[in-house]
Design a protein that fits this description.
By secondary structure, the chain is of the alpha+beta class. Helix content is about 40%, strand content about 20%. It has helices spanning about 1-25, 45-75, 90-120, 250-260, 270-285; strands at about 130-135, 140-145, 150-155, 175-180, 185-190, 195-200, 205, 215, 225-230, 240-245.
Length: about 290
């Protein structure tokens, strides 16, 4: 009983740490000492998580096998244990095995990989479309199916953050989408290559000038989720985050009606955002 009592405290602490880590993982952003990927909230992210876990098992088995093989060779064939080395230079069975087994492993990895790539590519049952356009260094969003309004989203400065908003991740405007809705995402860029990435959604897609890339999401849990540009797009690369709010369908309809009025006039807004974003990234860079 004494041994169990000694182990009880660290086990309880470990369980509480796991519980708190799981709670933090549901916040749609990374957290200190996080293990693994962010909690998936879309079908694509769930499949990515499963694929990641499968690969982890495969590479662990390979690493353990190679390590044991190296240890066996060092012990069995060192100069002291094997003073007279063998002169065998070829082994047909061994050569077939070390060629065929890696091929089989790659096939096992390739089949679910290609299925996942095809599944994440696009959806035929899209209920609405959102277009994200990357600029140096902020994002513009268009809602062509909900009034065809447009708005820009820039990172909040340190002096603009409200309690609970994460530094370098919160934006002045949020992308608002309804829960349990198939959404087509069109990603583009106006100047250089950017990448729209939300880890909890399993989305990371380049926005390329002169090209329109497509993916989709179906978020199954309401909340606020964060991401960042994942391409080296210039000095302000680390200062163009993404903030997505997933709300109920009723709340989304109410937001759309409000957004149609709020974002009805955006003439000249892009130029102002460009200047603000450049000045803001410089200030944040100096602060760091």
């Amino acid at each position: 009983m004494t041994a169990w009592r000694i182990l009880a405290a660290p086990m309880a602490l470990f369980c509480s740490l796991l519980t708190s880590a799981s709670a933090l993982a549901d916040h749609g952003m990374a957290h200190p000492w996080q293990l693994g990927l962010q909690a998936p909230v879309t079908p694509v992210a769930e499949q990515l998580n499963d694929f990641h876990n499968m690969l982890l098992v495969i590479i662990t088995v390979i690493a353990v096998f190679v390590t044991l093989l190296l240890i066996y060779v060092m012990v069995k064939f060192n100069a002291k244990a094997n003073p007279t080395p063998r002169t065998t230079t070829h082994n047909t069975l061994l050569e077939v095995l070390w060629t065929a087994i890696p091929i089989l492993i790659l096939v096992v990895i390739a089949i679910p990989s290609f299925k996942l790539l095809y599944y994440a590519d696009s959806t035929k049952d899209a209920e609405m479309t959102i277009k994200a356009i990357g600029h140096q260094w902020y994002w513009s969003y268009e809602y062509p199916d909900n009034g065809d309004f447009t708005f820009d989203a820039s990172m909040l400065g340190d002096d603009e953050l409200e309690p609970g908003q994460p530094r370098l991740l919160a934006t002045d405007e949020s992308v608002v989408i309804p829960v349990n809705t198939n959404i087509r995402l069109l990603i583009a860029a106006s100047d250089v290559i950017h990448a729209w990435a939300i880890p909890a959604f399993g989305v990371k897609l380049d926005g390329v000038p002169g090209r329109l890339n497509e993916t989709w999401v179906r978020v199954e849990k309401e909340g606020t989720y964060y991401g960042q540009c994942s391409e080296l797009c210039g000095t302000g690369h680390g200062f163009m985050p993404i903030q997505v709010k997933v709300v109920s369908k009723e709340a989304f309809k109410a937001w759309v009606e409000k957004a149609k009025v709020e974002y009805a006039s955006s003439n000249g807004k892009a130029d102002v955002k460009l200047a603000d974003a450049g000045a803001q990234s410089t200030q944040n860079g100096a602060a760091q």
